[in-house]
Amino acid sequence: MVVDGVDPPPGKTVFEQMQALKRDDSLRRFLLREPRGSVATHANLIVPPTRNDCDAGYIVMEPTEYPPMSGSNTMCVATVLLETGRVPMHEPETTLRLEAPAGLVEVRAACRDGRVESVELTNVPSFVAHLGATVEVEAFGTVEVDVAFGGMWYAIADASKLGFEIEPQEARELAGVSIAQIAAPWQGVGAVTRNAVVVAPGRLDRSATGTGLSARMAVLHARGLMRVGDSMSHASAIGSLFDGRIVAETTVGHGAVPAIVPAIRGSAWITGVAELYVDERDPFPEGYLLSDTWPGADTQ
């Protein structure tokens, strides 16, 4: 979380600020490339909101892109804002409104003894584009996928049909095409289902992925397996857990496409505080990439 030392980018909205940051891209490279960052690291720039009804704004930066919405990053932002006093904490629950590039995100944080125990966010409407589409994948042949939006677009494939159980030792084999979700067979309403989300530049998300869980629930709702009020949980390859529930039904695209409003709950922890600098003598002021650790990266 970048909480100080960086001026807000120009723009009338946080979405426009994200676009300005993307055009320059120096901050993302500085934070996420080696030696300061890594292929598994994300960063968020906290900015003043441009909307009067929000407590703060934030811009998500990932190793290769600027997603307009991220469940895990939102949880981290809310935790930092509350535990550092940038937004007043009220126990046992604090409600706050955050401005993401994708728009308004409503957050409910369970708080006790000055700490955030969990964060639940109401995500953007999530919907299905294709059920049971087929794609040809080298070494696997024809693979059936569902394509859904949960704040990001996902192609969701059945892990069991591909021979995976979603275990840590499978990580190298699972990583590949982004953005894909390799999902274990659904275990039912109220149960935990394992899943692995492959994010750019071709590595597994260490979190259970809030946008991925939103997309999965949209698919299950479209198939008639989940209804409003139903819940489920996703466990990542390392066992981190997000809980999801369907809050409401809605539509997108001028009412043409059925969608759901999902809520995602998880936890984040502050693990350290650091100050980052650029030495004027440093020949790599924005860092560097090597293909031994950054899949598909050019050496630079």
Characterization of the model:
- With 300 residues, the chain is an alpha+beta fold.
- It has 2 domains: 14-122, Diaminopimelate Epimerase, Chain A, domain 1, CATH 3.10.310; 126-261, Diaminopimelate Epimerase, Chain A, domain 1, CATH 3.10.310.
- It has helices spanning 14-24, 26-32, 71-83, 159-162, 171-174, 210-222; strands spanning 43-47, 56-61, 93-100, 103-112, 115-122, 126-137, 141-149, 153-158, 180-183, 192-199, 203-204, 231-235, 241-252, 257-266.
- It has an 8-stranded mixed β-barrel with strand order 6-7-8-9-10-12-13-14.
- A hairpin with a 3-residue loop joins β7 and β8 (153-158).
- The longest helix has 13 residues, at 71-83.
- The protein is globular, with a radius of gyration of 19 Å.
- The model has no long low-confidence stretch (mean pLDDT 94).
Low-confidence stretches: none
Helix share of residues? 10-25%
- Rounded to the nearest angstrom, the radius of gyration is 19 Å
The main β sheet shows up as: 8 strands, mixed, barrel
Number of domains: 2
Topology at a glance:
Blueprint: H1 14-24, H2 26-32, E1 43-47, E2 56-61, H3 71-83, E3 93-100, E4 103-112, E5 115-122, E6 126-137, E7 141-149, E8 153-158, H4 159-162, H5 171-174, E9 180-183, E10 192-199, E11 203-204, H6 210-222, E12 231-235, E13 241-252, E14 257-266
Parallel strand pairs: 2-3, 8-9, 10-12
Antiparallel strand pairs: 1-2, 3-4, 4-5, 5-14, 6-7, 6-14, 7-8, 9-10, 10-11, 12-13, 13-14
